[in-house]
Every structure is written in C-alpha cells, then in structure tokens.
Amino acid sequence: MPTSPSHNPPDGRSGLDFDAIVIGAGLSGMYQLYRLRELGLKVRVFEAGTEVGGTWYWNRYPGARFDSESYSYGYSFSKELLEEWEWSEHFAGQPETLRYCKHVADKFDLRRDIQFRSRVTSAIYDEAGRSWTITLEDSARFSTRFLITAIGPLSTPTLPRVEGRDDFKGQSFHTARWPKEPVDFKDKRVAVIGTGATGVQTIQTIASEVGHLTVFQRTPNWCAPLHNGKIDAETQKKIKAGYGEMFARCRETFACFIHTPDPRGAFEVSDEEREAFYEKLYGEPGFGIWQGNFRDILLDRKANATISEFVARKIRSRVKDPKIAEKLIPRNHGFGTRRLPLETFYYEVYNRDNVELIDITETPIERITPDGIRAGGRDFAFDIIIFATGFDAITGAFDQIDFRGTDGVQLRDKWKRGPETYLGLMVHQFPNMMMLMGPHTALGNIPRSIEYSVDWVTALIRYAREHGLTRLEATPEGVASWTDHVKALGAGLLSNEVDSWMTGINRNVEGKTTRIVARYSGSAPAYRARCDEVAANEYRELSLA
Ligand code: NAP
C-alpha cells in the first residue's frame, strides 16, 4: 500500500491535483521536495522503491560505497544537519549512506509527501490546462502544473542480451537490484560479469567470502586505490569546523570535488618530478589521481600515456601472474578516460587461489545454462551469477517513461539521435518540465550539482508564481545554442573518444551503439555562471506566459 501523503490545502486556482510533481525520491527528489515546500507548494513525490535514497536504496550490492569523500558528498543546505550527522569513514559504505538519506527524510518530515511503490509510466502535457498528467503503473493518474524529473543518470540497470538468461537454476542478481536480505556466499561458486566501478567493488568484497569466484571481464578498467579509513574524533571535529571552507572549495573546483586539476602540464616538469607526483597521487585517498592530476592528462594523448604507463606498472607489481596482470591492463583507452573505479586490494584478488579471470574477448560467453555459463566451449558451474553490467545511462531513465509534450511529441523520439536540452534543465516542447541531473548538466560530485540545480529550478518556479506565469518553455534557439555549446565543450576530450556509459554506449540496449555527447563537460563554475545569468535576466531566454 502506498504511504498516505499529506493533504496540503490545494491552491484553489488551478483545479490540479498538485502544484508540482517530482519523479524520484533520491538525493535530487528529496531536496527538491524540501525546497518546493518552502515555497508553499502542494507537492507530491512518486518513488518506485519502498524508501528514499535513490542510488543508495537500489545499489545495496556487497562493497557498495562512496568514491568521493563522505563529508563532501552530504547535503550542505542545513547547518543543523551538517552538525548532527557524523560519517564514520572517509568513504562511507552504502548502508551508512542509506541511513543518512533516511535520517534526512525523518528530520525534514519528507515522507508525508512521498508516495512509495509508485512507478511513473507516462507523463502527458495538456496545452489547454498548461499542466501535466502523470500515470502510475497501477493506472492511477495525477495532474500538476510543474513536473520535475529526479530519476537519476544511472538508474536503469541493463542485463546482457545472452541466450538462456532465464534458464539458470541458481540465484542471479543485477547489482542495482540486490535483495534486501543478505546473500550467503559461503562455499558458493560465484560468477561476476562486469568490471566497472560496481564490479570492482563487488569482486574485491566477496572474493574472500565465496568458495570460488570467476570474473568475466570484457574490458579492463584503470583503477586506483581508494585508501579508505575510519574518521577519528579529532578529524570529525576538524571536518565539522571546516565545512564552510570545504563547500566553498567545491564551488570553485572543476567538477565540485575537493580535488581539482593541477595547473601544470605533464611535460612541464622533469621525468623524476612527474614520477614523484604520480607516486604521491597513487598513495592518496580518493579521486585526486583522476581529478587532481596534471591539467592535460585527459586532453593530450602523450600526457595521458605517462599516467597510463605509471598505473600499468603498478598493476604489474601487484598481480603475481604476469599473464593475468596483462589482461587487467586496459589497451583501448587511456587512464581516466572512463569513470575511474577506486579499489581496495582489487588487483590482489587475482593472486588468490579461489579466483579465476576469464577474458571474454578470448573466451566469449555463449549462453547461460541451467547450471551456469558456457563460454569458449567450456561449461562453468555456478550457484550465483552477479550481473555488474551497468546502466542505460543518462537518457535511459527518460526512455522508461512515456513523456509527451506539445502536439503529442515523444521525448524518446526527440532524443533519438542524442539529447537536446536547454541548460540540461529543460526541453523545447516540454513546457513546465524541469530535469534534475538529466543530460547536458554538470554532474561531477553529484550532490553539489543537485543542490545547485534544485535551487535554480525552485527560483524559476518562485518567479513564475510571483509573476502569474503558468507556462515556461525552452525556446528552440536556446536548445540549439546549449546543445551546440555542450558538443563543442566535449570536442577535445579523450573521454568522448571512448565507449562508455558517459558517451551513451550500452550494447545491451538496442540503438545505443553510437557515441553521443550526453554530458556537459565544461567546468561546474562555468555551468553555474551561465545558469545564474539566465536567472539574473529574469529568464528572458525562456518562452514565458
Ligand atoms: P559500467 O561502468 O558501465 O560497467 C559495466 C561493466 O559490465 C563493464 O565492465 C562492461 O564491459 C560489462 N558488461 C556490460 N554488458 C556486458 C555484457 N553483455 N557482457 C560482458 N560484460 C558486460 O557500470 P557500473 O560498474 O555499474 O558503474 C556505472 C557508474 O556508476 C560508474 O561509472 C559510477 O559513475 C557509478 N558508480 C559509482 C560508485 C561510487 O560512487 N562508489 C560505485 C559504483 C558505480 P565493457 O566495459 O566492455 O562495456
């Protein structure tokens, strides 16, 4: 049964069920609800899960944890929340993060306006009413003036299109649909398919628990050590005292992390200095080696080769069997050109007797059988198969809902050849719909980006209400100009020349085999400056009525 949402007094003018509907109760949806309530709006959040937390609700696979510093990840909008919440580790695990999300929901009494177990299947714009009607899986319908998507860039899990998937008699899970009850790995023969950030965390966590682990790897990824640790009382005090400074820093850095590129180029220092710098970064916690490296490693192939070679040497030094080490070293992309998985003794896993690495480019998976997996003509028997096979990213969650704008135009159709947006926040022909963490926004350290986007959307809605506006739409010129800008920004980036979820590639999904520019890849401060300018000019770039 859905929980019972509150009944705020209706605005009495529109005859609509709600002033605003938010889809999704993850970090974006929760904060958006908080802000819209402050405006006095009648809001409802629809959430498919049974709890708040989004990513941290669904991704409860073994070893799921932050890759960015816990204290830089939490919400910054409430001093009281910052003061009372204590992260136990520098990079907190999923159970703690989910507890945090629940704590936020309790503290701000969010659940009374969130309807759980409610998956939105369609959202249709009605021009006469200047409103949206959303339909849930159970056919219930609700109307609203404003529709805000908070559906996440990595929320639509995908499975390999391999024969026999339903024949398997053992247990099988996608990491993003992990059961709430603990999975018993003792003495079990386990397969993991996929070696992205999720696969890496899963593999390193379960290797010592299982009877035998077989890792099916298609593309190795460059990984670097996380160097996690507990936060002691002294450090806790320092973190709390330094929140203001830290969030100010996150506002200035390229991608809102506490790390930002070193102003030097890789060849502006001597070979010895470069090596010493890489050694230092490899020994430090978090994304420093990715986000705080020389300014040109993600732009210049030769600069990139220096860090790739350095990390390849590290892999060779950590993996005893040279043949396996070579298999773990990426050949088709440079270091950091895909999202960097951070690891804790991941490479050492392959020194264990109970772990086998199968390179599926040599030993292709032929089919799933009732007893396991047939690959390269060999039958592997398994009790458990884990699919760490990623997501239909960025636009995938939008494709799951039938969004129809003016004249019945479908968002899926409109974005067939790649997304087209205004500031990553709005779409022409989809009036009164705002997207949080959709395509073409600055992602980076996500909660920092979320807070900015939610505040921008809230200010726009406040403006509309203060000026009696009931129709807000991005113009075709605005969309064309922003989309061109995003494409131009992505042009020189090595990461846009590589297949990954960041370039819209997912061979498990039909039609996702051509690279697109789905992400804004400029700096977060530049992104905010542009959005601020639009607000300061009273949204004149939008079509307002
Ligand atoms: P991912 O990076 O897309 O990795 C999916 C993996 O599955 C890849 O190794 C892929 O191989 C493999 N794969 C997919 N389909 C396959 C098939 N049919 N047969 C064999 N292998 C297949 O997905 P992810 O690891 O879930 O991570 C996605 C993103 O989520 C991350 O990049 C990160 O942004 C986020 N994440 C964050 C955290 C954190 O903050 N701590 C943790 C986990 C994930 P190919 O590379 O060959 O396609």
Structural features, described:
The protein has 545 residues and is α/β, with parallel strands linked by helices. It has two domains: 12-52 and 110-156 and 393-544, 3-Layer(bba) Sandwich (FAD/NAD(P)-binding domain), CATH 3.50.50; 193-387, no CATH class. Helix content is 31%, strand content 16%. It is built from 17 helices and 20 strands. Strands 1, 2, 3, 4, 5, 6, 17 and 18 form an eight-stranded mixed β-sheet that branches. Strands 7-16-8-9-12 form a five-stranded parallel β-sheet, with helices on one face. A three-stranded antiparallel β-sheet has the order 13-14-15, with no helix packed on it. Helix 1 (27-38) packs parallel to helix 15 and helix 15 (446-466) runs parallel beside helix 17. The longest helix is centred in the C-terminal third of the chain and has 21 residues, at 446-466. The chain is globular. The protein starts with 17 loop residues before the first strand and ends with a strand. The structure holds NADP nicotinamide-adenine-dinucleotide phosphate. NADP nicotinamide-adenine-dinucleotide phosphate is lined by residues 65-67, 154, 160, 193-199, 201, 218-219, 339, 360, 388-391, 501, 508.
